[in-house]
Amino acid sequence: MAPGTARLALPALLALIGLLPPGLGGAQISVHPPEATIPRGGTVQVNCSTSCDQNPKLGLETQLTKKEVAHGSHWKVFELSDVQEDSHPICFVNCGHQLMASMSLTVYWFPERVELLPLPRWQPVGENLTLRCQVAGGAPRRNLTVVLLRGEEELSRQPAVGEPAEVTVTVLAGREDHLANFSCRTELDLRPGGLGLFQNSSAPRQLQTFVLPETQPRLATPAVVEVDTQWTVNCTLDGLFPAAEAEVILTLAEKKLDSTSLYSKDSVLAMASVKANSQKEGIQQLACVVTLGDRDQKREENVVFYSFPAPNLTLSEPEVSEGTLVTVECEAQAGTTVSLEGVSSESPAHRAEFRLNASAADHRRSFSCSAALIVAGHLLHKNQIRELRVLYGPRLDERDCPGNWTWEEGSQQTLRCQAWGNPVPELKCHRKGDDALLPIGDLRPVKREVAGTYLCEARSPRGVTRREVVLNVTYHQNNMAIIIVVVVAVFLGTVSGAAYLYNRQRKIQKYKLQKAQEAAAMKLNTPATPP
Ligand SMILES: *[C@@H]1O[C@H](CO)[C@@H](O)[C@H](O)[C@H]1NC(C)=O
Ligand SMILES: *[C@@H]1O[C@H](CO)[C@@H](O)[C@H](O)[C@H]1NC(C)=O
Ligand SMILES: *[C@@H]1O[C@H](CO)[C@@H](O)[C@H](O)[C@H]1NC(C)=O
Ligand SMILES: *[C@@H]1O[C@H](CO)[C@@H](O)[C@H](O)[C@H]1NC(C)=O
Ligand SMILES: *[C@@H]1O[C@H](CO)[C@@H](O)[C@H](O)[C@H]1NC(C)=O
Ligand SMILES: *[C@@H]1O[C@H](CO)[C@@H](O)[C@H](O)[C@H]1NC(C)=O
Ligand SMILES: *[C@@H]1O[C@H](CO)[C@@H](O)[C@H](O)[C@H]1NC(C)=O
Ligand SMILES: *[C@@H]1O[C@H](CO)[C@@H](O)[C@H](O)[C@H]1NC(C)=O
Ligand SMILES: *[C@@H]1O[C@H](CO)[C@@H](O)[C@H](O)[C@H]1NC(C)=O
């Protein structure tokens, strides 16, 4: 049997006796106050008084430390101190027989510990969360309530039961609970006893809630990668909460890649640039792990690394003279198929070639060769280009430098004369006779003075070629002048002819008249002879 039970047994028995009907003569005993609530360890004064006439001997039955502090003939005041727990002291008096009255002494004290038990570091949204609050100590328990709180909002209010008392409440965690502060509080309500409401609170605990969808992240990566090249990989996952707390780790062949994460409202994008070094041919595993809260989602992909050098495209000679045979050859690594521009491939092979007779038109011609390789179902191409240089010329023919131009004076014309060749020839055109230069280019207007026969000469290290260019200029206005001159000449001729005839006629008449006058004069001077 516990010692506490023994201590309580006697007063309880006496209290039971006190309920017996009062003794003869109607003598009574009373206690004041009949009930008291005091802080634990506190002090209280109890006044026992009686109506018994016969020199009463009052006493107080208790196991508490007691001291008589005052008395009268029919009363006695005791002081009880260091009251640690509830008790029921009993006043008694012998008045012929024993009279008793008991009082109720209630001790109150505040809880020594109010604690919200630790929350999970991360709580998934949509799952139940149980909040537990432990309260150690505190009395009287029937006046002690435990309140569980989210911020200031009361989630549950329950009596404190047990020692320590544990109170729980289950809440469905939501996004709004992220970073919410949870706590619990005790309320010792002694207001009916006039002492007030006493509250004690636990330290708050902050909750972090999260959403990580049940889907795998998306990995954006090329399926095949050429060794010793730099490439990028992206990993994204949507529907995250809070997205900024998500962590992404990208690994290649179990080695972590340096990545940068970009966050948006509800998603994360991690980008990694994979360095060109230390890659080997073959299959390697690329993985992306998105961690949020205490969970993660993983995605894995295989990346095939291949080596594929560009085909070797060779010209037998990169620079040849016109009319030389050139061999164009393309060769790629075994297992590939080359296609050489200008060759119709009958059967796929990893090398191809053809010959050509280099002409001026082939100067600066590009030859291209493409090699194809299939890696893990992906068709890949590599190209190579070579340019042929052909030495030719100098060339100065009718097409490039027409030899006969006939233009009207004053018209607007363009004189074309160009020499061709590789290396580029030098062109000089001089007029026969005076060495004037041929006016190549725009002639506006065409002048009479440029007419003539020119000798053009194109000269390059490969030789010299010559050509005559005749430039005729016709002039209409000068024909008019000739016509006028002719007309004037005809007119003048006619006029002078007419004047001559007239003059001659007049001279003849004058002569005739003179002859007549002479004859007449002779007739007068000679004597008339008879016929
Ligand atoms: C104790 O109670 C009696 C009876 O009610 C009263 O006469 C007396 O004054 C009280 N004593 C004190 C100290 O209050
Ligand atoms: C959460 O708990 C309540 C009862 O407290 C229960 O009805 C509900 O099904 C639980 N929900 C989940 C998701 O466990
Ligand atoms: C919770 O408490 C912390 C620190 O005590 C405070 O910074 C934060 O704002 C509180 N959260 C809410 C939702 O009140
Ligand atoms: C404790 O609570 C009970 C019932 O709720 C009430 O009757 C009593 O007076 C309270 N005690 C105190 C000291 O207030
Ligand atoms: C409980 O609250 C009371 C006042 O309400 C205060 O005096 C006391 O120190 C508190 N106890 C603890 C353990 O904080
Ligand atoms: C990765 O994301 C960035 C930014 O959105 C984009 O510019 C890039 O093209 C992406 N790379 C791949 C391989 O998808
Ligand atoms: C190349 O062509 C030119 C003119 O078409 C010809 O004169 C020459 O003989 C050819 N050369 C060869 C090697 O066939
Ligand atoms: C291309 O030429 C280089 C050097 O001449 C040689 O090392 C390489 O093996 C050749 N590649 C192919 C596919 O023939
Ligand atoms: C030049 O052209 C003109 C007319 O176009 C023609 O009459 C003349 O005969 C040509 N001369 C030569 C040398 O071809």
TrEMBL record:
It holds the Pfam family ICAM_N. GO terms for cellular component: external side of plasma membrane; extracellular exosome; immunological synapse; membrane raft. One of its GO terms (biological process) is cellular response to glucose stimulus. InterPro entries: ICAM, ICAM1_3_5_D2, ICAM_N, ICAM_VCAM, ICAM_VCAM_N, Ig-like_dom_sf, Ig-like_fold, Ig_sub. The keyword Disulfide bond applies. The chain crosses the membrane at residues 480-502. It is found in: Membrane. Residues 33-108, 118-208, 315-391, 402-474 form the Immunoglobulin domain. ICAM proteins are ligands for the leukocyte adhesion protein LFA-1 (integrin alpha-L/beta-2). During leukocyte trans-endothelial migration, ICAM1 engagement promotes the assembly of endothelial apical cups through ARHGEF26/SGEF and RHOG activation. This is Intercellular adhesion molecule 1. It comes from Neovison vison (American mink). The lineage of its organism: Eukaryota, Metazoa, Chordata, Craniata, Vertebrata.
